[in-house]
Amino acid sequence: MSFSPTLLLMALCVCFGALAAWFLCEPRVRRLQKGLDEVEADLKAQQASQAHIIHTTKLASLGQMVAGVAHEINTPLGFVKSNVEVVADLLAEHEQQLARLMSGIDLLHNADAVTLARAREALTRARNTLATQPLLGDARDLLGDASDGLKSIASLVQNLKNFARVDRDGLDQVDLNDCVRSALSVGAHQLRDRVKVVTDLGQVPRVRAMPSQLNQVLLNLITNAAQAMPAEGTLTIATRHAGDHVEVSVTDTGTGIPEAVLPKIFDPFFTTKPVGEGTGLGLSIVHKIVKSHGGTIHVRTAPNQGTTFTVALPVDVRASAPAQEKAA
């Protein structure tokens, strides 16, 4: 087979053209690749920085939560301590009365007529004192109150344990109503004495979720609601079964969210608070957790009337049937 000179020349031209194009484009490709590598490195650095800030924010939130819980524990603890000290004083006084009574009894042994009369007087005085001073009754009441205080502490510690759920980091069948109660207990220090709490917890099936993360969602929403009501207000938390989802709504009577701000509230690091008072990660974390559980979150707000956040989570099909049978 023979090739014409024209075809060979054309083939050589194509080869040389392709080779020239490669030499001309190769530096550009390298520059583009270098630029892509730099962008990828910057993106990874930003992601690492954001992860670090989110972790730091969670630790700060945990610190605030622990401080609040410590305050909640300190109140009944001080009450218990005071009651125990008073009971100790009452018992000491009761011991003195018993000592006088025993002294009168001792005088009865080998007593003559004069000593017998003195012993009778001492016994009568001791008896009247014990009869008119209900020391043991007071001590019993104080110990009962102290026991109630200890039960409050135990309940708070149990709620904190349920909130953290350190023994259950994986997915579990979760009662959303239990999460609401736990979050309210842990966040109570932010609401006490100024915010009225109203709960309307319906009969809802369980959802499949990480309990500690759902607790974090609810605590963040409760914290936001408390901060939206600088003065007195009402916080309403409701749960309901809506088809194949369970919904929980958190409503405050605060200042509302401005319309211009509303589209940005779930953006990481976006905040309307002064510098140093907020990181802008609270609602971003809430949004991320809800999405990771296959749920949705919506917000409804009105200026100077309040805001409602509604979280919808899919029902755990494996748990819904038994739950409904139990309810029936």
The biggest sheet, with number of strands, parallel, antiparallel or mixed sense and barrel status, is: 5 strands, mixed
Structural class: alpha+beta
The number of helical elements comes to 7
Number of E-type strands: 7
The CATH class designation of the largest domain is Alpha Beta
User: Judging by the overall fold, what is the CATH architecture of the largest domain?
Assistant: 2-Layer Sandwich
Percent of residues in β-strands: 5-15%
For CATH, the homologous superfamily of the largest domain is named as: Histidine kinase-like ATPase, C-terminal domain
Quick tags:
Heat Shock Protein 90, single chain, alpha+beta, 62% helix, 7 strands, two-stranded antiparallel ribbon, 328 residues, 2 domains, five-stranded mixed β-sheet
Question: Could you characterize what this model shows?
Answer:
With 328 residues, the protein is α+β, with helices and mostly antiparallel strands. It has two domains: 23-164; 170-327, Histidine kinase-like ATPase, C-terminal domain (Heat Shock Protein 90, 2-Layer Sandwich), CATH 3.30.565.10. The chain is 62% helix and 14% strand. It is built from seven helices and seven strands; from the N terminus they run αααβαββαββαββα. The protein has helices spanning 5-108, 113-132, 135-164, 176-186, 211-228, 282-292, 317-327; strands at residues 172-174, 195-201, 207-209, 233-242, 245-252, 296-302, 306-314. The strands form two sheets. Strands 2-4-5-7-6 form a five-stranded mixed β-sheet. α5 (211-228) packs antiparallel against α6 (282-292). The protein is elongated and about 155 Å long. It starts with a helix and ends with a helix. The relative contact order is 0.08. Mean pLDDT is 76; it is low at 321-328.
